[in-house]
Amino acid sequence: MIFTPTILKGAFVIDLEKRTDERGFFSRTYCAEEFKKHGLAESMPQSNMSFSKQKNTLRGMHYQIDGAEEAKLIRCTQGSILDVIIDIRKNSETYCQYISVELTALNYRMLYVPEGFAHGFITLSDDVEVAYQVSQFYTPGKERGIRWNDPLFNIQWTTVNPIISEKDGSHPNFIK
Question: Rounded to an integer, what is the distance from CA 140 to the centroid of its chain?
Answer without folding.
Answer: 20
